Give the backbone structure.
Amino acid sequence: MKKLATTLLLLVLVAQLSGPTTMASSAYVGTFTNTYPNTTGTALAACATCHTSGMALNPYGTDLAAAGSNYASIEGRDSDGDGFTNLAEIRALTNPGDASSKPAGSSGSGTSGSTGSGGGTAASYRDISQSSARSAIEALVQAGVLSGGGGYFRPNANVTRAEFAALVLRAFRLPAIQPYLAAFSDVPKNHWAWGAVETVVRAGLMGPSGDDTFSPGGVVTRADGARTVATALGHGDDVASLSDADCLSYGVNLGLYAAGTSNAGAALTRGDAAMLLAGALESRSAMTDPWAGIQDYALGPQACEGCHSDVAALTATTFHSRMVRELGPGATNANFADPNAGITPDDVLFVIGNNESNYFVGEDFNYLPAGWNLETKQWNARRASSWLGCAPCHTTGFDADLGSFVALNITCESCHGG
């Protein structure tokens, strides 16, 4: 085993030192467009967003690399010095790494930090002029947490748990994830807030509403809001065991709510949520470690592939990275036409194993009652049991409480996460 590990390490080093580096890979571009869906199919969905024509890093690419590929952390910067923040340029579909590319109608004399055509009070919301939350809402537009655009914000409507999760994700600049397996039956992968909910829960800022459920349309109470924001600001240990009333009081003492705020079970409106999060952003900016309250969570292999595509490709050839595979070409040579099989390809979700035997997992994540011997090419009986018992060792980002995981197999984060 040591010899195999040493050989793999040497191969990685050789690949890094002597092999060409694949920059701005399709995986990297995919991560960018997932973060900024408006860039899909545009000129920004290409190498030039981060690289010069000679494939050196441009100013935006340099800042992004220094930030560990955390897009959100550099949204407020003006990487190319053209007077517009990176977020404003991305929204306007101009290149944040090229000073000659800037939002339409600009002269280049704008103040660094301007949101350009990407937001600001002029493109805020048409129904907030009389709202007590107006300044907070506009601050969140400026910060890129809200989109603005001149539509309706509905400040007096109750904020739902799904909406609050999406706001928390953007306010605290959490790298969004898209787990392989959805954690909640009421927030499936096609739900608009699926990624936000999965991320915020894994970051330890919100929790389930019950077994296997999140209640995305449910209300967020004042106590809920205080608990989430206090946790994100590094006070999680203090509020974890507090009653709702005491948690609200704690939030008032932190300055999250105005003095005298009571009724911990009252529902937060969208305006309330904006004021809560705008205040949180100010508090977070003063923190020595703004990530102190965020629980570590796996992002998935695509987060590593963006900058380390050559190493990721090498890792993908190892046995551990191919232990669990979806049924497809090359996954197994099992003869499903054999009368002794007892199962069909339609029954199979995953193929397990790649050395001597294959086992098969069905849609319910239970092992199917048949195994295939790769050497003898014969079928054998297999005891039915839950594959999820194997998932902690053979997936990335497995969460036992949620019964969910971020990616199949052992990936880079299995050893280098956190």
Confidence is low (pLDDT under 50) at residues 1-26, 106-122. The CA atoms of residues 242 and 250 lie 9 Å apart. The radius of gyration is 24 Å. DSSP finds 14 helices and seven strands in the chain.
